Every structure is written in structure tokens, then in C-alpha cells.
Amino acid sequence: MGILDKMRLDGKKAYVTGGAQGLGKAMATGLAEAGADVAIVDINIAKAQQTAREIAEATGQKAIAIKTDVTDPEQVQNMIDTVVKELGGLDAAFNNAGMCLNVPAEEMTFEQWQKVVNLNLNAVFLCSTAAGRYMLKQGSGSIVNTASMSAHIVNRPQPQCSYNATKAGVIQLSKSLAIEWAKKGVRVNTMSPGYMGTDLTLNSPDLKPLIKTWNDWAPLGRLGKPEELQGMAVYLASDTSSFSTGSDYLVDGAFTAW
Ligand SMILES: NC(=O)c1ccc[n+]([C@@H]2O[C@H](COP(=O)([O-])OP(=O)(O)OC[C@H]3O[C@@H](n4cnc5c(N)ncnc54)[C@H](O)[C@@H]3O)[C@@H](O)[C@H]2O)c1
């Protein structure tokens, strides 16, 4: 069997949180194109259903939508149970939903801080451990958490201390789980995108005016496209990444390299 056959995901079952749009939608599409059945997990159920329909039509794979607020422990456990029941198992978990607030630290309320920590870090803990409990029993599985280049550098000029802190936390949490579960067949990695063209950047009134500045500083001179994460997503979900665990994969067009 050649390497491209080994990278195929036929028979595998995956979910992607924040999968209704942006990077999550691109990852879910890539996984389905490679042969996986996918669940689009999102708080925005109308958009998740639309995305699931599009993916099913384009790829012929099973694609379902599950309404979940990933910051709620009970909803997260229900989501895992639904994935297993509806798709027939769980092999790859993509915990990707996240948000950014651009508020100077000295003006940030505790509520604003907590909102970002809840979605970007607490929800990743809830989803990773709920998926992990199922995968540990099964003796196999790949968990991929979306961090960011902001785990490695402090973005400028926009202030975003809560985002940067939570994304660094996602990497250390994921490495810790990877070590705890290394001998039990469950792999945990993070993907760290650079600036990508999604709603989060293109339609944010705070961030949109900064895109030209970021592009001037970017070695490639442009934002990443969501589909430029698909290859990494398929690699990490597939068995070809069997020696990859506890790692962070930067996909940032060398933004953090200089
Ligand atoms: N866009 C970028 O430049 C960039 C760069 C690095 C990392 N990231 C990270 O990638 C991930 C996806 O970013 P994106 O740009 O696609 O974002 P996006 O804002 O376009 O999409 C986020 C999705 O998450 C969903 N969501 C929000 N709160 C939720 C909740 N409580 N429960 C379930 N779903 C919820 C939203 O409905 C939406 O569909 C995030 O973790 C983000 O921090 C993005």
C-alpha cells in the first residue's frame, strides 16, 4: 500500500468543533474528502446543518450536525455519545472552536477574560477528556486541538492577552494528555495556524483594518487560506502519524520564524 493509500481515512469517524465555518469547516471537508464520516459540532446549528449538507453532497460521506455549546460539560458528553451512536464510533477528535477578544489588559473585565478562557481552554479540556475516555477504552484515537501561533508569539499591534494565554495553555494541556495516554493508543497534538482568512479575521471590525499590516510583516505576504490546513488535519487523523504525539504543528507561512 502506498503512502497516499495509508493516509486515506476510509471507515474512520471524526468530529470537528466550531466546524460550521472557517478553519473547522475546512478541516471537516478535508477529512471527509479523505474518506472519513464527520460530525459538525457547533453552537450555530443552522450553519452546522448547512455545512454538513454541503460536505455530504460534495464527498458522498456521512456528515451530521450536532448542536453543542462546548463550554458545557453535560452537552460535551452528550455530543460524544451522539457521535459514537450516529457515526458508529470515534477515531479523530478535532477540538477547534475558539474566539479572540481584543481588549487592553488593564481595561479587560474579569467576565471578558473568563469568556475567552472558557471557550479556548476549558472547552478544550472538556472535549479532549470526554473524547479521551472513549478512545482509551477503545485503545486508539487521535485528538487534535487548535492552538495558534499566538501560543508562541505575542501578536501586535492588537492587544489579546487572554487569547495568547489560552492558546499557550492548549499546547501544554495537549502535551500533558499526550504523555498520560502515550502507552494507551491515544495521541494528542496541536495545530497552530498563523493569520488565516476566516470570519474571525476578515469580518472582525477590530482586526480587519490590521490585515495589511500583518501581510507586510508576513514572509509570504498574505493570510493563509483555511484549506491550507487540510493536509495537516488528514495527516494527524490518519495512522501515518502514529509516531506523532505531544507535538505542536505550526502552519503559519513562517510568520513566527523571523
Ligand atoms: N482565523 C485565524 O487567523 C486563526 C489563527 C490561529 C488560530 N485560530 C483558531 O482556529 C479556530 C477556528 O478559528 P476560525 O477563524 O475558524 O473561527 P470562526 O470564528 O470563523 O469560527 C468559530 C466557530 O466556533 C463556533 N463556536 C463559538 N462558540 C462556540 C461554543 N461555545 N460551542 C460550540 N461552537 C462554538 C462558532 O459558531 C463558529 O462556527 C479557533 O480556535 C481560533 O482561535 C484562528
Automatic annotation (TrEMBL):
Keywords, ordered alphabetically: Oxidoreductase
SUPFAM superfamilies, A to Z: NAD(P)-binding Rossmann-fold domains
Keyword Oxidoreductase among UniProt keywords: yes
Biological process according to GO: carbohydrate metabolic process
Pfam families to which the protein is assigned, alphabetical: adh_short_C2 (PF13561)
Keyword Oxidoreductase: yes
Any GO molecular function: oxidoreductase activity, acting on the CH-OH group of donors, NAD or NADP as acceptor
InterPro entries tied to this protein: NAD(P)-bd_dom_sf (IPR036291), Sc_DH/Rdtase_CS (IPR020904), SDR_fam (IPR002347)
Domain of life according to the entry: Bacteria
PROSITE patterns: ADH_SHORT (PS00061)
Record family assignment: Belongs to the short-chain dehydrogenases/reductases (SDR) family.
Protein name per Swiss-Prot or TrEMBL: Oxidoreductase, short chain dehydrogenase reductase family protein
Organism: Levilactobacillus parabrevis ATCC 53295
